[in-house]
Write a structure and sequence with these properties.
The complex is a heterodimer of chains A (about 100) and B (about 400). Chain A is mainly α. Chain A has three helices and no strands. Chain B has two domains: about 15-255, Peroxisomal Thiolase, Chain A, domain 1, CATH 3.40.47.10; about 260-410, Peroxisomal Thiolase, Chain A, domain 1 (3-Layer(aba) Sandwich). The longest helix of chain B has 16 residues, at about 80-95.
């Protein structure tokens, strides 16, 4: 048995997607499921202030800084998954 | 039929709708019922932030749950001070028979008094920032803390496009706002206004601040009484629909009463200690504006915070202003029942005065233990009673020496 701890696994794109989907379903219960990466926030009836709140919660959940990195410009859920995964992976030293 | 205009040719201003949320619950009916029954909404209340807490006397809105009235996004956007104003505003608009009348509201003014703005949102942001470090706060912190959020949301509710702003003169805010709206209608700038005051002050940091300035009661509010030790916190909103008498008559509106006169003054002396001259000038101007004489007044709804100093100075000012007639008038404090709701208090007390006129009943000062030589006027101790009321006064004093008074009558 190795006597050193294994480094925490960097979340995969799939695990980031699953966590984001759960966050959005909790925050916007009126958004009709099932969610897909094609979900378009403004066309889906999510107000701009709600998107700001979502970004804040995403940053809290993943301990990342979308706004500071200038990466809070997205229109679809798939784009948000990509941005979050990018920052999470970078934080884990793999990007 | 009474004259449609004032003696000076300007418009008469009447109240055609009233709404309130307060320590007794939601609604003007619940407010007056509890006031007339000499109930008290104040109780020891523990306010917490994290693992810190303070216990103060306060009258919070019983059973209030924001999600019973607002969507998740609205709750995120609305600090409680604005939520309370919206609920009182909706009641007032419905009471006036003007719900959904977007054409009728288009040119109306929205003038609301508020002392602290979004105190809870400000405390939330401060706690988050200073416990976590960094520079991030919730993105809705600004719209939640802004004082003017309240008029924005009230305007959105009614589709009012007229002049809209907030008046912030601390504990006199609600009275100043009603005075401002009265002037605007009186002089023909608008013929309708939504006006009043709101406050959500029963919050940990606010309670600490007012405890530090040694104004909070040790047990409860006992205005004008022997053994009084300070004020109790209160929260809520009072919103009124004001119209020119001509506009009200034109649509056959029910009239609750009339704002006959407005008085204001400032004490350019001390930031926290009231003086004698300012309130006296305020009363003088309100009565002159109403075209009434001191002998016409049987009742003054006082500022009556229950602090040793306020009640002493207020009693002296009223006594000196009214002279020998002071022995025949009553000076009571609704803050003994509702706590001190800062920017909301003047509007809630104006509503109480209009109900007092309607029911020919003097509102009481509850928790009154016995006479204090510094407060020699009749406090309507512990029980409401019948009286013949034609014109009444209500007055509010804010820190910084800002004073405002309204003379109210049945009107119509």
């Amino acid at each position: 048995m190795p006597d050193t701890e294994m480094p925490p696994a960097t979340p995969t794109r799939e695990s980031v997607r699953a966590e984001l989907y759960a966050l959005i379903e909790a925050q916007f219960p009126r958004v009709v499921a099932p969610l897909t990466d094609d979900f378009h926030f403004s066309e889906g009836g999510v107000a701009s202030l709600e998107v700001m709140m979502l970004v804040f919660d995403v940053e809290e959940t993943f301990d990342i800084a979308l706004v500071d990195e200038g990466l809070d410009d997205f229109e679809t859920l798939g784009e948000l998954v990509t941005l979050v995964h990018l920052l999470v992976a970078r934080k884990g030293g793999q990007a | 039929m009474s004259a449609q205009r004032r003696a000076d040719g300007n418009h008469r201003v009447v109240v055609t709708g009233m709404g309130a949320i307060h320590g007794f619950g939601h609604g003007v009916a619940a407010l007056w019922q509890a006031v007339a029954a000499a109930e008290c909404a104040i109780a020891p209340t523990t306010l917490a932030r994290g693992n810190q807490q303070i216990t103060v006397p306060a009258a919070r809105i019983p059973g209030y749950r924001d999600r019973d009235y607002f969507t998740e996004l609205q709750v995120a956007l609305l600090d409680p001070f604005a939520q309370y104003a919206l609920l009182a505003g909706r009641e007032a608009v419905a009471d006036a028979g003007l719900a959904g009348d977007t054409d009728g509201w288009r040119d109306a003014a929205v003038i609301v008094g508020n002392g602290g703005g979004g105190e809870l949102a400000r405390e939330d942001a401060g706690a988050y920032l200073f416990t976590r470090g960094g520079t991030r706060v919730h993105p809705l912190t600004v719209p939640r803390t802004n004082h003017q959020a309240v008029v924005s949301h009230l305007a959105a509710d009614t589709q009012a496009f007229g002049p809209a702003y907030v008046i912030s003169t601390g504990c006199a805010s609600g009275t100043h706002a009603l005075a401002q709206a009265t002037w605007m209608i009186r002089h023909g700038l608008v013929n309708r206004a939504l006006s009043g005051g709101c406050e959500a002050n029963a919050i940990f940091s606010v309670a600490c601040a007012f405890t530090a300035v040694r104004t909070v009661a040790r047990d409860t509010s006992r205005p004008f009484s022997h053994g009084r030790t300070g004020f109790s916190f209160g929260e809520g909103a009072g919103i009124l629909v004001l119209e020119s008498l001509e506009a009200a008559h034109a649509r056959g509106a029910r009239i609750h009463g009339e704002i006959l006169g407005v008085g204001m003054s400032i004490d350019p002396a001390d930031q926290v200690h009231p003086s004698h001259l300012g309130p006296t000038l305020c009363l003088t101007r309100a009565l002159k504006d109403a075209g009434r004489e001191p002998g016409d007044i049987a009742y003054v709804n006082g500022h009556g915070t229950g602090t040793v100093l306020n009640d002493r100075v207020e009693s002296a000012a009223v006594r000196d202003f009214f002279g020998p007639h002071a022995g025949r008038l009553a000076l009571s404090s609704s803050k003994s029942q509702l706590g001190h709701s800062f920017g909301a208090s003047g509007a809630l007390e104006a509503i109480i005065c209009l109900k007092a006129l309607r029911h020919q009943t003097l509102p009481p000062t509850v928790n009154w233990l016995g006479p204090d030589p510094d407060c020699p006027l009749d406090p309507v101790a512990n029980k409401a009673r019948s009286a013949s009321l034609e014109t009444v006064l209500t007055q509010s004093f804010g820190f910084g020496g800002v004073n405002a008074a309204l003379a109210l009558g049945l009107g119509g």
